[in-house]
Amino acid sequence: MNLNATLIAQLVVFFILAWFTMKFVWPPIVKALDERAKKIADGLAAADKAKADLALAEKKVVEELRKARESAGDVRASAEKQASQLVDEARAEASRIIAQAREAAEAEAGAAAQRAKEALRDQVAHLAVAGAEKILRREINAQVHAELLANLKQELQ
User: Which of 74, 71, 51 is nearest to 63 (CA)?
Assistant: First the structure.
């Protein structure tokens, strides 16, 4: 065999093998590599998206915590205000009740004083009548009575 014929035959076989490899072997390998690269890129994109979602979720958590703290502060302030208002209302009610009790006691004391005065007047009147009766029984003197009446008349004028 001739060296040139062998070389040409090897070249033909090489080109057929290269063509066969390029036509049937290389495309599935390239396709598999492209799919693998795409999966890796998708995985990296998903990881980036997950990072972004995690950062967004963390921001939302921080915001919700801030809102919850603010809301708790508002609730606490409202409760303190309501408690203060209830205390003020209770004090006002107690003051009103005390004032009513004081007024009732003063009215009762005034009524008792009035009753005592009337009872005292009645007693003084009874004593005066009794004293006058005793005086009149004891001494009936027309001249003394006339003098008394004259003195009374002068005092009244």
Answer: 71
